[in-house]
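Give me a protein, keeping tokens residue-aligned:
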Amino acid sequence: MSLPPASPTRRQSAPPESGWLARESDPDGTGVVRAAPHRVAVLVYDGVTLLDVAGPAEVFKEANRFGADYQIVLLSPTGADVTSNLGARLAVDGAVGPEQASDTLLVAGSDLYPRLRVPADLADAARIPAAAAGRVASICTGAFILAAAGLLDGKRATTHWQVAHSLAAWYPTCRVEPDAIYVRDGTTYTSAGVTAGIDLALALVEEDHGPDLAREVARALVVYMQRAGGQSQFSAPLQGPPPRSPALRKITDLVTADPRGDHSLGELAKHLNVSTRQLTRLFHDELSTTPARYVENIRFDMARALLDQGHTASQAATVAGFPSYESMRRVFSRKLSISPAAYQRRFSTTRRTSASR
């Protein structure tokens, strides 16, 4: 269903230090000079992961409905069309080159890398347009292409957690942060797995046009407002195998859906009509943890997300279901060796990070 467009939001100019192109045009010869569209070039090649291309592109396209002005182009190393990892053929708009100047260059990832070393022509295809781009970003394993092009030398970066160790080993001058959703180092951005590319694209839209427009885009796409870059790639339900038994799955789903509920051992056992000893054994056998620790991990994940979004520590403790702020503080201290307030100062939203740079 097509949603009615919102009232246009005025396009914010890029900060002077970003190095973005100050391109303007007077197409009608009227003397009225208008800013040119913000050009987003996506580097694609044979074997490129289709979702790495489509996810961020959809974010920028949707942002145009709410007042942004992004022009999305696909570029390949030679200008020839490419075939994605799914076998779908992608028609490109041209070849990379110094004349193909872009405000934002996105380098999509591929399952091919890091199984194979990035070929020199593909590394060059990233390096050449990056020299003229205002900002450069990679999606998932696209970080390997940036690194091969020398664009991550001395920079902080991330990629999919499964291959982060390879990125660090192959490119030791890059400071890899394997647990981050996305990382910004100056005008260079890298992101984790494929859906993190959507988080990164939303963050770039927020950087360009503010949080309100980015929130509208997220709502229109029915996705969670972008996870902050410092947020972990993992949540408690993803850190281990899912429960095998339907009974235990019922309990974990219950806790995940409502962390604030009464999830004491006795109450959880009542939901399954089993003894507390039997429920404890189920958690131990299938998840290698206790019911109390599982509930704590879910609440910790929610509190951390709330702090990422700008809620106060007291609000986060209440909404996440902790009995008190002090109980939340003890969990943060045990897991991260920092307080909730220190965590919030270190891992802030893109808007706050951008404002402080």
Observations:
- The two ends are 40 Å apart (CA to CA).
- Residues 1-25, 349-357 have pLDDT under 50 and may be disordered.
- The longest strand covers residues 70-76.
